[in-house]
């Protein structure tokens, strides 16, 4: 029975005898045979080669490394290495075996000599446990079997699911806080004086929203929009933003503690990735010389230039979306369809958000090729370095793709559009958008809601359906040939390995970056959940719902729809931790800017304490924000419209109309109040960020990265090992 246990399967097309591909394949298999590998060939529509490594390779591995799974070893007795270790060692040797033509497996797969190489999903007890307790929808709200995941997929995959589970658990608290903030906005702050004044402003005539065939409008028309805005933009939002800054820190600090417990229980503290890679190189080739670290300033400069060019492309895409919104707003406003003209702003924002989502999808396809090119130029020494470089570049690329449009809406929309009589125009024709009288925060809310909902629903559906459909199609392709083989070659068809190898081959392909894509998806989601969360308090709730589904979706894909991933060892989540910490700092800055710049929180507070009726008399019964809307509007003389402006219907009578800004009526320069608000925004931003960052630092200091229990366990182990070592030291040697 042991003879039928195979570590890896290589798949090849059936090539003509004597052809170049057949010769290359034979040379590679001969190299494996020289190393003592057992090879079994099965022929179907493809050629399948089962590969099993000799036992002495694993003995060498145990000798060279202090294997956490076999610490108590000696020269005469070896424990069996775990299946995950076997697969990892065999995979390394397969990838680094060189033929007489100086070609490796990677080169041969590029030349179509081999089509695939994969370890097998086998019918073993642990796989059945995972299928029952993890890879099914019925166990949606049950704890993940992390230890079993580790034993089947290795430490790297297990750590990903442990981290994702921990993140999802802590999202419950963030989601509750977000829902409470929205509920407070809808109840406690629903009777807002600001929105009440907008709803009652029946006589406040506003400047037209476009230049051609647009009419003046009454401020009270936007009553509903004002009420929705105040549900998001209120005092509770400031507290929620500070809470989320603390939550992000506590999440990472608690994860570090959780990781320390996991790494200790899996005995990974003494494991070194570089040492393992060197050991595997020596097992594969005892004459191997290590590749030394190198750094080229020229290559780094080229990579930097490439990165800057890509960022410029993404900024260009953001500009294109700005142009679309400006043109769409103008066209929808002038539309004869009353629904389009009435809700021109909202429709332009929503369709702009959908277009932004489509650019994210398209640029995601482009990103990997660019990052691979940059990685090739840098030539990292180890796979870990290569992965880290790839991670940083891809994350930056995705971050700018996802957030460029949001940054424009949050910090530039309505602030660079000019004023009536002197608008900033695109190509001298289309006016840039203006903020709603209630502020721009609702635009940001809509943009984030559309992107998050589309991104999570569509990506999850596609993530599941594409592998499922692909798997079904591959199975259908095989069935007719199977029947003919059973008729013509019954003995071969009855080979117990054949069905297993075929069923594994029919599954979807995986690669070394399959897990990377899962990490990237969740880290980008974490960015949405933290960076602009002040504008979209429901982000943690959407993330929580998505993650509960995502965990089991990933489990089903890995267990039922994809080939087995090559298990990799790891003692943490790698560079992703630094990325998450950077996002935590950006979250403090981003939310501070949203409250200071995007929100109307600061202008309202300045009005209350400097310009409201409360500053002149002691009005205990009056809301101090009374009169804020009228105070925040500036007057404009119709005679100062640009010559080509055409207003419908033709206006007669009054010569003054209003717009949202703080400008003087005579020369349209900024008022003193504008500069007071500007100073208050700046002061709030500095204060908010310093307080939030101090709280983050205190939280990081207060919660130790490694629990005392783990530290004491490591200390006790070190002491015990040293004491055991002391017993072997001869007394005369010490005396000498």
Task: Provide a quick synopsis of the model.
The protein has about 725 residues and is of the alpha+beta class. The protein has helices spanning about 20-35, 55-65, 85-95, 105-110, 125-135, 145-155, 155-185, 195-200, 225-230, 235-265, 275-285, 295-335, 340, 345-380, 385-410, 440-490, 490-495, 495-505, 515-530, 540-560, 575-600, 600-610, 630, 670-700, 710-725, 730-735; strands at about 10, 40-45, 45-50, 115-120, 205, 210-215, 215-220, 420, 420-425, 425, 430, 635, 645, 655-660.
Description:
This protein has two domains: 8-120, no CATH class; 152-288 and 295-474 and 513-602, no CATH class. The chain has 26 helices and 14 strands. The model is unreliable at 67-78 and 480-493 (pLDDT under 50). The strands form six sheets. Strands 2-3-1-4 form a four-stranded antiparallel beta sheet, sandwiched between helices. Strands 5-7 form a two-stranded antiparallel ribbon. It has a two-stranded parallel sheet with strand order 6-13. The protein is elongated, with a radius of gyration of 32 Å. By secondary structure, the chain is an alpha+beta fold. One of its GO terms (cellular component) is plasma membrane.
């Amino acid at each position: 029975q042991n003879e039928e246990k195979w570590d890896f399967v290589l798949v090849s097309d059936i090539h003509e005898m004597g052809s170049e591909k057949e010769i290359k394949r034979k040379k590679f298999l001969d190299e494996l045979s020289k190393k003592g590998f057992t090879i079994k060939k099965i022929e179907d529509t493809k050629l399948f080669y089962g590969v099993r490594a000799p036992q002495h390779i694993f003995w060498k591995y145990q000798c060279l490394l202090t294997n956490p799974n076999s610490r108590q070893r000696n020269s005469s007795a070896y424990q069996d290495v775990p299946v995950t270790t076997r697969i990892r060692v065999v995979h390394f040797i397969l990838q680094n075996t060189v033929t007489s033509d100086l070609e490796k497996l990677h080169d041969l797969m590029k030349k179509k000599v081999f089509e695939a190489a994969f370890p097998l999903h086998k019918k073993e007890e642990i796989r059945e446990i995972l299928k029952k307790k993890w890879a099914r929808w019925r166990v949606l709200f049950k704890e993940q079997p992390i230890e079993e995941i580790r034993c089947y997929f290795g430490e790297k995959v297990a750590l990903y699911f442990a981290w994702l589970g921990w993140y999802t658990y802590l999202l419950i608290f963030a989601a509750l806080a977000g829902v409470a903030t929205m509920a407070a906005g809808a109840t406690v702050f629903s009777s807002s004086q600001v929105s009440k004044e907008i709803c009652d402003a029946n006589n406040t005539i506003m400047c037209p929203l476009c230049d051609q065939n647009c009419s003046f409008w009454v401020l009270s028309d936007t009553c509903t929009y004002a009420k929705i805005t105040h549900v998001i933009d209120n005092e509770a939002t400031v507290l929620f933003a500070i809470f989320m800054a603390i939550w992000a820190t506590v999440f990472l600090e608690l994860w570090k503690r959780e990781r320390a417990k996991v790494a200790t229980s899996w005995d990974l503290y003494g494991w070194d990735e570089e040492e393992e890679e060197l050991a595997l190189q020596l097992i594969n080739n005892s004459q191997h010389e290590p590749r030394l670290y190198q750094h080229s300033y020229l290559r780094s400069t080229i990579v930097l230039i490439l990165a800057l060019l890509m960022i410029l492309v993404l900024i260009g895409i953001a500009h294109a979306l700005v142009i679309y919104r400006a043109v769409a707003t103008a066209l929808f406003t002038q539309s004869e369809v009353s629904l389009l003209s009435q809700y021109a702003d909202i429709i332009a924002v929503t369709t702009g958000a959908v277009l932004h989502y489509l650019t994210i999808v398209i640029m995601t396809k482009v990103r990997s090729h660019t990052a691979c090119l940059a990685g090739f130029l840098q030539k990292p020494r180890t796979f870990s370095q290569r992965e880290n470089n790839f991670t940083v570049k891809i994350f930056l690329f995705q971050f700018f793709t996802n957030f460029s449009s949001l940054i424009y809406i949050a910090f530039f929309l309505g602030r660079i559009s000019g004023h009536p009589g002197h608008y900033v125009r695109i190509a001298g024709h289309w006016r840039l958008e203006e903020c709603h009288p209630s502020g721009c925060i609702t635009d940001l809310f809509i943009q984030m809601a559309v992107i998050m909902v589309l991104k999570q629903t569509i990506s999850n559906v596609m993530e599941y359906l594409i592998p499922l459909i692909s798997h079904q199609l591959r199975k259908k392709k095989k069935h007719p040939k199977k029947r003919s083989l059973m008729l013509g070659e019954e003995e071969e068809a009855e080979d117990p390995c054949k069905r297993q190898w075929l069923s594994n081959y029919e599954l979807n392909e995986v690669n070394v970056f399959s897990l990377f894509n899962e990490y990237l998806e969740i880290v980008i989601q974490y960015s949405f959940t933290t960076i602009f969360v002040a504008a979209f308090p429901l982000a943690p709730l959407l993330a929580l719902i998505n993650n509960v589904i995502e965990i089991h979706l990933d489990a089903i894909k890995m267990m039922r729809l994809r080939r087995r991933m090559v298990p990799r060892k790891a003692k943490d989540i790698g560079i992703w931790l630094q990325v998450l910490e950077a996002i935590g700092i950006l979250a403090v800055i981003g939310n501070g800017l949203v409250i200071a710049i995007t929100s109307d929180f600061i202008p309202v507070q300045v009005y209350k304490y400097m310009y409201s009726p409360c500053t002149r008399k002691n009005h205990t019964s009056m809301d101090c924000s009374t009169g804020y809307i009228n105070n925040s509007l500036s007057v404009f003389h119709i005679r100062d419209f640009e010559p080509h402006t055409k207003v419908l219907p033709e206006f007669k009578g009054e010569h003054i109309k209003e717009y949202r800004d703080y400008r003087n009526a005579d020369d349209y320069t900024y008022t003193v109040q504008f500069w007071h608000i500007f100073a208050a925004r700046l002061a709030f931003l500095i204060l908010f960020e310093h307080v939030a960052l101090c709280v983050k630092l205190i939280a990081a200091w207060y919660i130790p990265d490694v629990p005392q229990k783990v530290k004491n366990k490591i200390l006790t182990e070190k002491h015990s090992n040293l004491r055991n070592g002391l017993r072997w030291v001869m007394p005369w040697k010490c005396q000498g």
